[in-house]
Amino acid sequence: MLRSDAVLVEARATTRTVARTFSLACRLLPRAVRDDVYRLYLVFRTLDDLVDDGAPDALGRVAAVEAWARAGAIDAREARVLADVDGRHRLPRGALLDFCAGMRADLAGTPVVTEADLDAYCYRVAGTVGIVMTAVLGVDGDADAARDDAAALGCAMQRTNILRDIDEDLAAGRVYLPAAVVERTGGSLAPGEREAVLRDQIARADALYDQGLAGVRRLRSGRAAVRAAGVMYREILRQIEREGYGAVAGRATVPRTRKLLVAVRAAA
Asked: Which domain holds residue 151?
């Protein structure tokens, strides 16, 4: 069993540093599951960063997680962390393999052409994370419905990331909003010209938030934390609207005080 203090310290620090909204929500998690949520976040974030940065060992680290999910092989730190958490919460292998497929697609530069492509991408890189988290938090009642709802919430958050980071992604040569969507809405991704695109995509994200947040009641523990994370992330969409749907270039940022306000309301 791997319960290294060093791993946990890094996991907590990573969450606080690079996922401030998620870190706020994690404070509401029951102590019995909080540290394992941090550990899982470290695994997902590490792989995602390796892929985004084009690190030489990115493919090997993804393959090591696949090898653990398929056969229990432990050839990298991420596999050791997963094996440790799996000893307390049976992790869904299929969701982990789907996540790795999303990482492989990013490494290969697989284009997102249609709305269906975007749905598949969001499921692989974020919906799967929601499903894995349900294994730690537990489910009461219909497990399949709970996983579907958790996947919807993950996809909503990923779509929010995409809408928030349009300019950063374009600068890095990445486009996650399909050309077919831009063409259908009659707009473009340029600042001041993307209101139609954003209105269309915000509506799709909101529908996923509706499903995901309604499904929080199915979780056995951590309901307040998950609900808080969802509403804080959803507030980014409202900030995009307040700022004129991308009228000027840049990332929409929700002030911390507003995040806390919506989180408190959600927890209550």
From this structure: 5-267
Closest CA to 110 of 167, 175, 155: 175
Do residues 19 and 25 lie in contact, with contact meaning Cβ atoms separated by under 8 Å?
no
Residue in the block written with tokens 């706020």: 24
- The two three-digit tokens of residue 240, written as one number: 């995009």
* pLDDT per residue as tens digits for the range 74-119: 989 999 999 999 999 999 999 999 999 999 999 999 999 999 999 9
Q: What's the domain count of the chain?
A: 1
Side-chain-side CA neighbours of residue 22 (13 Å): 20
Alpha helix ranges (H) inside the chain: 5-18, 20-26, 31-52, 58-71, 77-86, 93-108, 115-122, 128-137, 143-164, 166-171, 179-185, 195-214, 223-242, 256-267
Look at residues 60, 79, 78, 77 and name the one whose alpha carbon lies nearest to residue 68.
Answer: 79
Can you give the CATH number for the domain in which 156 is found? 1.10.600.10
Phi, psi (degrees; rounded to nearest 5) at 87:
-65, -20
54: which 2 tokens? 């084009």
Tokens 């982990």 belong to residue: 96
